[in-house]
Amino acid sequence: MQQLKVIVDYCNDLLRVNDFKDYCPNGLQVEGRDQINKIVCGVTACQALIDAAIEKQADAILVHHGYFWKNEDPVITGIKRKRIQSLLEHGISLLAYHLPLDAHEQFGNNVTLAQKLNIQAFESEQRGEAQGLLWNGRLAQPMSASDFTKHIATHLGRAPLHLPDAVNKPIQKIAWCTGGAQHYIEEAAAMGMDAYVSGEVSEQTFHLAQELNIHYFAAGHHATESYGVQALASHLGDKFGIHTEFVDIANPV
């Protein structure tokens, strides 16, 4: 059992939330009971995750995608009302960490994705807009595009979209940024990478990959961002002696 404030303050310091200009508030978004014994974690604070947390008698939910995004309607109605009402009625706190969880060098989405895909000698770009978010590394041995596609599917449980099929060069040097970061493909090409991996894809990504002569793999927003929150929750469990559990709400996107 640990105080909510102690856990929130620790996470905020650990993830250096004040270093990021983000699209949403990071940290405690909905305040529940003061004492925490069990945390349910997941990628997105959807109703299905909240319902699972209620069923499992969790005291808090830890997610990557929370609420109160920039430019969204601020009124508490409809889906948002139902979600927040469910949290408040059951005294469940909601903690959400977006860019700070993407960038963290030990528990972040990017570093845990690299570990999952067996990418070696990885490091983050520390310049410009992509600071701390765009990572690069190497495979132990070069792979063909078809083999790397199978490699991603095997380790993430989801077949990626590969663009463009016309590129035949082998893959060893890889850059990546989880989630909806397809726009970093030009930076990846400028770094001399063979391939760039992210979660989502845009119409223009096909043309950019073809003209930049770089492989692009859209491996899924949910699939690429499932591991950071698990690593963070596991760390909190060990540090504070509390129960943590990951609930995977399946999402093909």
Tell me what you see in this structure:
- By secondary structure, the protein is of the alpha/beta class.
- It folds into two domains: 2-97 and 227-246, 3-Layer(aba) Sandwich (Udp-n-acetylmuramoylalanyl-d-glutamate--2,6- Diaminopimelate Ligase, Chain: A, domain 1), CATH 3.40.1390; 109-222, NIF3 (NGG1p interacting factor 3)-like (Udp-n-acetylmuramoylalanyl-d-glutamate--2,6- Diaminopimelate Ligase, Chain: A, domain 1, 3-Layer(aba) Sandwich).
- 36% of the residues lie in helices and 24% in strands.
- It is built from ten helices and 13 strands.
- The protein has helices at 4-14, 47-55, 78-89, 99-103, 109-116, 145-156, 185-190, 203-212, 221-224, 228-240, and strands at 2-3, 27-30, 35-36, 38-44, 60-65, 93-96, 120-124, 135-143, 161-163, 171-176, 195-198, 215-218, 243-246.
- Strands 7-8-10-11-12-9 form a six-stranded mixed sheet. A five-stranded mixed sheet has the order 2-6-5-4-13, with helices on both faces. Strands 1-3 form a two-stranded antiparallel sheet.
- Strand 4 (38-44), helix 2 (47-55) and strand 5 (60-65) form a beta-alpha-beta unit.
- Helix 2 (47-55) runs parallel beside helix 3 (78-89).
- 43% of the residues are buried.
